[in-house]
Amino acid sequence: MSVEYFSTRTKGDGITASKAILKGLSDDGGLFVPSYIPKFESTLEDMSKMSYRELAYEIMRLYFSDFTEDELKNCIEKAYDDKFDTESIAPLVSAGGAYYLELFHGATIAFKDMALSILPHLLTTSAKKNDIKNEIVILTATSGDTGKAALAGFADVPGTRIIVFYPKNGVSAIQEKQMVTQKGSNVNVVGITGNFDDAQTGVKKMFNDKELAGLLNEKGFQFSSANSINIGRLVPQIVYYVYAYVTLLKEEKIKDGELINVVVPTGNFGNILAAFYAKNMGVPIDKLICASNENKVLFDFFKTGEYDRNREFKLTSSPSMDILISSNLERLIYFIAGNDPVRNASLMEMLSKEGRYSIDDEMKKRLSSFEGGYATEEETLKEIHDLYDSTGYVLDTHTAVASCVYRKYKKDTADDKTTVIASTASPYKFTNSVMKAIAPDVTGKDDFELADNLCRISNVPVPKAVEEIRNAPVLHDIVCDKDEMKETVMKLLGI
């Protein structure tokens, strides 16, 4: 039985994977979810003998069942090529009693590359399959990493345009420089006077604007998304959790069927949701440990069963997690509500109107595999310092949040299962904070000089992605108010 896709908010007929990828968001504002989570058709032992590309096909074919073998393999080969600086694509590194799954070896040195390297190919293939003649406009909000990864993936891809909105004062200096120097005749980058939640809300409003959709269609355009609300972003992320497990199996670090724990630094909830899907497909994962920074809306949710975004928004040293509306949590809520779109929609309406909702005891029971934890700013910097001091291994700020949460979890529970921590970005994306943690006496005029000092101290080369933007000219300097996003898009498209 082929997997189809349904909205999390209304009952209706299922659609194909390619149509779900093209649409990005359902017409009712819901997210697309698979009709069921498929089980593996190969054993873990067999999958341990596969390369990353082979494993990607083995997983993705189960979800993208209307793609032919040639179509999907072509997408995978184009995505996971020499733009990654390691043949393994996602290496596992042992340090300080845990395994760090390094997801930052792609073109923009962040985990978003793992999915955004393939999404443009999935999207353009989907357009051909569905005889789409309109130009596809990728509309994306970013808290720092998605933006650059999406820009790099879609730059000069025929039949597409991409517009990225980011919080003007809410990303690191290197994250911003990566975006505003992006080349490509079809790319636009816009800073907004607001935070990531404002950017994400503005994008969702445009997706749900029927009048705007009609106007776009008249002019030969249609929206799609590169955010993790797009199922074409989420499914490729499942692969690296499977890869982590079978790599441990291959290297005889665990036995077949042995349970492991997974820790994920979490903002929009897509990355840890992919681990949840991997678990339900058959990866022997025991605990999914959701790590938050001081914007601990998810920690509070897993502790109390109430999701409440009515709180102070904090700017931290882990900006990709500075989020109070975790969009992908809706897919989990739908799942624990028994795949009931009506029940889910009522909760999402409460979130929209009141900024909060609560789940019942039955739904809470279905969250038993999740644990929540959070790290303060002080704890985050201390984790970077302590791990470097004891092992020489350097963490970025987001991974440090997860690493700190794991150590606190292990101390509180004495759970000593083999643990994989998702390492979501290179420390070179956040040199200011990282250097403040490991060598506060070493200063630099800017983030690039700090990067050189980090290289000298850590003996880890400055990534190509940082060197490329060091002296690159700024190509995008538009800034708009959070309430002017729609008008900005129309102007950029010449409407």
CATH architecture of the domain at 92-109 and 232-461: 3-Layer(aba) Sandwich
Strand order of the largest sheet: 3-4-14-9-10-13
* Subunit arrangement of the protein: single chain
Q: Helical proportion?
A: 40-55%
- Give the strand tally: 15
Largest sheet: 6 strands, mixed
What name does CATH use for the topology of the domain at 92-109 and 232-461? Rossmann fold
**What's the end-to-end separation, in Å?**
43 Å
Look at the structure and give the mean pLDDT. Answer: 96
> Structural class of the helix and strand makeup?
alpha/beta
- Categorize the overall geometry: globular
Strand content: 15-25%
CATH class of the domain at 92-109 and 232-461: Alpha Beta
Gyration radius, rounded? 21 Å
Counting DSSP H or I runs of 4 or more residues, the number of helices is: 22
The unreliable regions are none
Descriptive account of the structure:
This protein is an alpha/beta fold. It has a domain at 92-109 and 232-461: 3-Layer(aba) Sandwich (Rossmann fold). The chain is built from 22 helices and 15 strands. It has helices spanning 17-23, 44-47, 52-63, 69-79, 113-116, 119-129, 145-154, 173-180, 196-207, 210-218, 231-250, 270-281, 297-304, 329-336, 341-354, 361-365, 377-391, 397-413, 431-438, 447-458, 464-469, 485-492; strands spanning 5-7, 32-34, 92-95, 98-102, 135-141, 160-167, 187-193, 221-224, 260-265, 285-292, 306-308, 356-358, 370-374, 419-423, 478-481. A 6-stranded mixed sheet has the order 3-4-14-9-10-13, sandwiched between helices. Strands 8-5-6-7-15 form a 5-stranded parallel sheet, with helices on both faces. It has a two-stranded antiparallel sheet with strand order 1-2. The chain starts with a strand and ends with a helix. 53% of the residues are buried. The mean pLDDT is 96.
